[in-house]
């Protein structure tokens, strides 16, 4: 394996037996910024779904959020890195940060599959609204062949019934439970812009980074 994907997990995956592959959770997003809800989602999936590790995948040029992404890719990457540095079962990758052009999940999965082969099994971690939306992504059937979806529900999202049954038919979906988190990156950016405190919504290291770099002001 020549492509560096994960500093923490690459060696473990290289040594894994294809008959018992490394169970790798994948959590993608803009993380603008990473907040307590993201971390809780990753931890709940890790704790409840038998994962060996969770890999955060910050987007570079997020095709679905071209007009809403505020912090630079490097700032978003640095905030995740600071938040998970002491969590050995979490890591992050630069795959999409370093990629030129638009970011598509299927391209990232193909790179990872080529690098890891059968030594890793991929589990795509997302909220229920994202699960229903997967059929609108680029090459959804190809994504479905490469991942098992680990899905939890966010009570604050209204699902589109047009996608619900179709998504369940095309993807292998496993549900897991976690407490609801009434927090979003948009909310945090707006509170910072208004000069309101956001420390209770963020990992301490992320809160410090935002203040030191004067993000979202």
Describe this entry's structure for a reader.
38% of the residues lie in helices and 16% in strands. The N and C termini lie far apart (42 Å). A six-stranded parallel beta sheet has the order 3-2-1-4-5-6, sandwiched between helices. It is globular. It is built from nine helices and six strands; from the N terminus they run αβαβαβαβααβαβαα. The protein has helices at residues 10-14, 36-48, 73-84, 105-116, 128-133, 140-146, 161-170, 185-193, 204-212, and strands at 22-29, 53-58, 90-92, 120-127, 147-152, 173-175. α4 packs parallel to α6 (140-146). It is an alpha/beta fold and 217 residues long.
Which tags fit this structure?
217 residues; alpha/beta; six-stranded parallel β-sheet; 9 helices; 16% strand; globular
Structural class, judged by helices and strands? alpha/beta
Order of helices and strands: HEHEHEHEHHEHEHH
CA-CA gap between termini: 42 Å
Secondary structure: number of strands: 6
Helix content: 25-40%
List the helices and strands and how they pair.
Blueprint (H helix, E strand, L loop, with lengths): L9 H5 L7 E8 L6 H13 L4 E6 L14 H12 L5 E3 L12 H12 L3 E8 H6 L6 H7 E6 L8 H10 L2 E3 L9 H9 L10 H9 L5
Helix pairs in contact: 3-9, 4-6
Gist of the model:
The protein is of the alpha/beta class and 217 residues long. Helix content is 38%, strand content 16%. Helix 2 links the parallel strand 1 and strand 2.
